[in-house]
Amino acid sequence: MNPTQFAAIAVSAIFVQNLVIVYMLCEGSFFKALKTPASMTLFGGCITVATTLSSVFAWLINSFLLRPNSLAWLSPIVFIIIIAALEALAELIVSKFLPEKSNSLHKLFTASAFNCAVLGLVFLNIEVNMRGFFGAAFYGFCAGLGYLLAMFIIKNALERISFSSPPTVFKGLPIALITTGIISLGFMGFAGISIS
Amino acid sequence: MSKNKKKAASNKKAAPAARKKEKNAKMTAAPAMKETNKAAAVPAKGKAAQVAAAPTNEQKAAKTAVEPAEEKAVKAAAATEDVKVQEASAPANPNSAQTEKENTERAGFKLAGNKFFASIKNFNFKRHKAPKPEKAEKAEKQETGAPAELNKAKKAENAPAEELEKENQLLNLKKRLLDLNPVFIKIVAAVPLLGAAVSLKNGILLSCVMILTVVLLNLLLIPIYRFIPNRYRPAVSFLAAGVVITPLYAIAHYFSPSIASNCSIYLPLIAVSALALCEKQHFGKKYVVPKTALDAFFNGLGFAFAAIIISVLREIIANGTLYDRPLPYISEAKFKLAAYPAGAFILLAVFAALFRKIFNYNEGKGDDML
């Protein structure tokens, strides 16, 4: 793969195929994580690690086990096992090297690993099987960065909205959803861009 | 007149003598008082002491007047000692019972006062927080001396009523469909609905898969959930969701491959959404299998209700069709934005606001984290 292809993957993963704004993979944990910049960065970093590692292992298993044996129907359970195993591994490492922080990081790991964004990204990565191993890994990494970017954009927009006074019925999640919808309108503009 | 003058003169002469007598009487009384009350003791000195050493008749009379006071004081002291002894030795005595009562009342007042002052001391005027349950128990033990088991027993008396209320809340189809709709009110499990509910066919498939997933997940998890440590519960439930969704995913691809491929990545993501729905149920704590499964079924119906409304509206607005059949008049006026993510977000937000307004959902109950 040449650098232009990597750039195209980066642009498409961060902007054109943004997990939150375009693919709408934002569960309750996404809005719960919108607190402080530090916590958002930590959560986004965990998501990035999870997406990168899970896309690497998913690509390997899909390419060498599922697709050759026409076991694609088993993909949900296989990918779920991969994600659960990665989460368990991360907890094991933390409990061994940082035992005092294992309890506080446990919730963060579970929220970031058992997230629809991670599972959805793995399926997205497998659907477009043209990228190769490094392409899949880089796509996973950039998709995590796109998730982090979406978090910061939506948080900033919601902070600005908090200064205004929306109708009482729309206060809370409805106004957050409308804000996300308006932001996704802006991101639709990236769909026309093609690099390569 | 002369007689009167003489009388006055004799009175003047007699007055100092009477005063002297009174003084002497007082001086003789002083040592006796010294024994009973040291503060009132007056030392006898000089001439008065000498006079006291040789008492006259008048002094004797004064002595006899003072002696009863001494005796009274001594008797009173003895009486108080006797009462104390009686209290210690014979509590069954009615007089001692009264004193006991008085003492307990005093102790009670003291305790109440101490509690009151302690609460004032410990009160945080900035932000009053209720103590944690363990701390509260300890505090109760320290303050009252009574075990916290009594309070637990009182709570246990009220518990059945609360459980009944919860069960009634659980097994209520109307609440799951409208009042507490998981998608429109709680905004849970909205991902597949936002992504794939573009047509009625997709909506029906999504709702069928969701209902089956939620019910099967409940049936699978409830019997084992209480035996799993808290730390491993998310991982185990995630794996269970995977186990449930895999055959459903295969069946959907086998019987309706076109609709399943239209749903693309959102069909397996129902596993995560179903898990979110189940978490809202708090399964595996107090409830038995059939009840929670029925409640899960109602929850799934709530999701299906929302999915069908959203998918029908999006199909009509975006394509002007219903179940792939063109509608008259409407098919000419298409608004493609409804099929895009922006349209999905805005439509869901409008429905959420509408349902919250109609069913008076109180904001800030936990899911409103903004």
UniProtKB/TrEMBL annotation, chain A:
Coiled coil ranges (UniProt) are none
GO CC, alphabetical: endomembrane system; plasma membrane
Membrane topology summary: Multi-pass membrane protein
Q: Which residues cross the membrane?
A: 6-26, 38-61, 73-94, 106-126, 132-154, 175-195
InterPro entries from the UniProt entry:
NqrDE/RnfAE, NqrDE/RnfAE_oxidrdctase
Enumerate the subcellular locations listed in this protein's record, separating them with semicolons.
Endomembrane system
Query: Signal peptide location in the record?
Result: none
Q: Which UniProt keywords apply?
A: Membrane, Translocase, Transmembrane, Transmembrane helix, Transport
Pfam family for this entry, one: Rnf-Nqr
State the name under which the record lists this protein: Putative membrane protein
